[in-house]
Design goal:
Blueprint: E1 9-12, H1 21-40, H2 45-54, H3 61-68, H4 76-84, H5 96-104, E2 108-113, H6 118-125, E3 133-136, H7 148-157, E4 164-168, H8 176-181, E5 184-188, E6 207-209, H9 215-221
Parallel strand pairs: 1-2, 1-4, 2-3, 4-5, 5-6
Helix pairs in contact: 1-4, 2-3
Length: 229
């Protein structure tokens, strides 16, 4: 549960917390469709985006597309590689840079993400260099279901869990472990999991906001120093 010590560090999730994951998906799908067109001569860009965003086939999307057109399933690995290898610029939520700037004046900033290519995403978002510690869990063969990523980022920041807060959006993975460690937790209710409720009290955040722009005000209400300029 939430601690009572003054906060020293604020740690963030990335996807749907600092930027809309749908944008990453859209650029990845376009890159995958480009790869498919180069390999087969089939221009299926519109159908691929329709499958993902309209038909809600967000798992096995490439398998479904290839099956629909009688194309080899051996192409799936190439399409996944192209999806995650996209390099187009991404845009953070409008308020993200200002919030990171403001909170970063008085707190160390960390990031823990389960998303692939987390550091490349930060570069594409123009957010690289904003954080004092970054942990991309696939690089250590772990996930936010486990304690290790949070302990590592706290160690890198040189702060105990009682003096840190974790800000995320996904009640399935973002809050249970930080709660158990004694970090304070804040949910930004938006993105893919807006309507998803925590599966248990242990997975519920301490606080909830609907826009990242209100995070500095929340920290102030918790009695933490936040630069007001």
């Amino acid at each position: 549960m939430s601690g009572t010590d003054p906060l020293q560090a604020v740690c963030f999730d990335l996807d749907d917390t600092l930027y809309p994951y749908a944008e990453y998906a859209r650029t990845g799908l376009r890159a995958a469709a480009d790869r498919l067109a180069a390999r087969t001569g089939r221009g299926l860009h519109t159908e691929l985006e329709w499958l993902y965003f309209e038909a809600d086939v967000t798992e096995g999307t490439f398998d479904r597309l290839l099956e629909r057109h009688g194309l080899s399933a051996e192409l799936v690995d190439e399409l996944v590689e192209a999806y995650h290898g996209a390099t187009a610029d991404l845009s953070p939520y409008d308020e993200t840079p200002a919030v990171l700037e403001r909170v970063g004046r008085t707190h160390d900033l960390g990031l823990v993400t389960d998303g692939r290519n987390g550091r490349q995403k930060l570069t594409r978002l123009g957010l690289d260099g904003r954080f004092d510690a970054v942990l991309v869990t696939p690089t250590i063969g772990s996930s936010k279901h486990e304690v290790e990523p949070f302990e590592r980022v706290l160690d890198d920041l040189g702060v105990g869990p009682g003096r840190a807060v974790y800000v995320g959006d996904d009640p399935r993975v973002d809050f249970r472990v930080p709660n158990d460690l004694g970090m304070r937790t804040v949910r930004v209710r938006r993105g893919r999991y807006t309507d998803l409720e925590p599966g248990s009290a242990a997975a519920a955040p301490d606080h909830e906001i609907h826009r990242l722009a209100t995070l500095p005000d929340l920290l102030e209400r918790l009695g933490q120093p936040v630069d007001t300029t």
